[in-house]
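Quick one:
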Amino acid sequence: MSLPVVLSWADVQSRLQIIFPEGTPKRLDCTREIAAKTVFVMLYVGAISDRDVWIRPDQVTRMTDDQAASTSGDDRLAWIKVSLSKSKAPIPGRWYAVNTRESIRDDTLRNGLVENGAVVTKPDVAVTSSAGRYALEPGFASLFDPALDEPAFKAAAEAWAEGHLNAGVRMRIAVMRGGAAKSSEKVKVEFPSGESRLMSPGPSSYLSKAVIETFATKFLKAPAVIFLSESGNKVVARDDKLARDIGLTIKAERNLPDIILADLAPVKPLLVFVEVVATDGPVTEARKKALQAIAEDAGFSPDQLAYVTAYLDRSGSPFKKTINELAWGSYAWFAAEPEGLVELVFGRGGLR
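Output:
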């Protein structure tokens, strides 16, 4: 069986960064240099599961730049034999030290490429065995065909992701792409009432859209938008009539949150204050107290109030940067994982 034509490891890395976009779990383990070199070696030796060819992690450590440049079939077959030998002779210019095989096995392969469906393991080989155990999934391997031009590659990569990444991961990727998009087009937000508003382009507007169109419909029985603003304190929408109907007076001079939602289903409506965090500005203890004062001035009791900080993704820097500031008794919600809601519990005396 002939060996597949190989790209350079740098070109492999470029493709990996497109195959596994922002939002992919363990993305760094699947896209960094050591991952690209691991995939390169697997292609170099033809380690693709339907060929029944498998590699050991230490083979990646034995590769050199000179050897990687030798891509004829004979050179590759000769290196395969050498790479599987038990020789302990020095290898000038080897890519990695011998003990790097553990991190290749654990981080790059098991936790990264295997978890994301790009690499498969041979089921009848023990972890401690010296036999090869890892091979590329055939569809994934085909994404590195040098004959694929850019449009064909991107289409193939999307098709592969559709078939191999689960629905939750695909949703996270879509949200991350939307939140990071640099577009000059305004963001259209559809309200629960059927009305719509346009917001300035940017991550904060995209997050506000997700809060109103997704969060509100998932976690509120009869959602309504009372107030919506965007960066620069520009008021996008305010429903003064609804606010008056539920007893809330919106004063423009007050330090209002990005979004005020209401759940009109309970006899006593639930008021939800939402801060949208694309960079900073979560619901801190001080912010919570200020918002609570606004509601209490209008006659709302504490059990009618909820405080939510909305983020794009929990793996992103905005959440990591502000998690220590989040107020007890508030919630965190992530647009990339819309089914979940994190509650910061304090003083209950145990799990419930």
